[in-house]
Structures are given as C-alpha cells and as structure tokens.
C-alpha cells in the first residue's frame, strides 16, 4: 500500500522538478539592482546624500530599453544637487553591468526611509515592459546632531612623542643586555666539555 502512494508522489515530484528546471533555464534577462546611499556633511553645515545604483543583467539574454527611475526622494526634503534621478540605456547585455549616481542636498531634518528605485526593460519575446526593483536603502538620519568624530590627536603626539621614543629605546637596550646572545650560549656549551 505504501508503494501505491509513493509511486504517484515520486512521479509528481519528478514532473515538478522538470517544470522548474525548464522555467529556471529559460532564456530571459534577469535584472538585479543594488541601491546605496551615503551622507556627507559639508563645512557649511548642509548635508548631501550620494546615491549610487548598480544594475546587473544576470540572465542569458540582452535587456533592451532599460530605464531607471528613482522617485523616492520627496522634493520638499531633498533637492537634486548633481545628476538626474532617472537614466536610460539602449541595452544591457547578458552579464553586463551599468551604474548611475546622483547627489541630493537635504533641506529638512529627520529620518528618511527610501523606497526602491524602479527599473523597466523590454524583452524581445514580450511586448509588455518588465519591471524590476532595486534593494531598499537603510534609514538615513538627515541633518542629525552628531557628536564630533574622534580624530587622532596630533598635538598629543607632538607633546609626548619624544618621551615615548626615549623610553622605547631604553627598554630595547635593557632587553638586549638581559637576553643572552646565541654565540655566547654556544661558547658556554663548548667550555663544559
């Protein structure tokens, strides 16, 4: 009885495996996109957001009429400082990579959670445009009150650097005097014979 149930189950699993292998190996572009954003504080107190989007075609066919649009930046919070929030490419070959970057200047203070950018592309076998999305970005704390970063204190090095170097030289000298050399250890073993 167990074999009667297991044989149709095995056949169904094999059929499912064959269908998934057929669909997995079909010839289509497969778009993977990564969106990165970083904050830069300017000396004037303003803050810029540098956005970089990398688009990869991991499929086996070329994607045509590739367009990127990143409308997730509200105009009342951000102003485009350089570049454009949209870009188009005629084609993206299989295994190819394209990148796009732009900078925004923050106008308002607060935490901002950006949405993924939208990538539209055309496949030669389908009339409708296909869509892909980038990865979302981590929340950005725009114009936040941050404590100043601890930088290396050069004035401490200038003040105590000579003292540290003298102490280091004295310690090395004492170490060299206290440890026996290999040649004197070899001579001592010859004298015992």
From TrEMBL:
This protein's record includes keyword Nucleus: no
Q: Which UniProt keywords apply?
A: Membrane, Transmembrane, Transmembrane helix
Entry's Gene Ontology cellular component terms: endoplasmic reticulum
What is the organism of origin for this protein? Parasponia andersonii
Q: Where are the transmembrane segments?
A: 12-33, 156-178
Q: Does the keyword Transmembrane apply?
A: yes
Mind telling me what this protein is named? Translocon-associated protein subunit beta
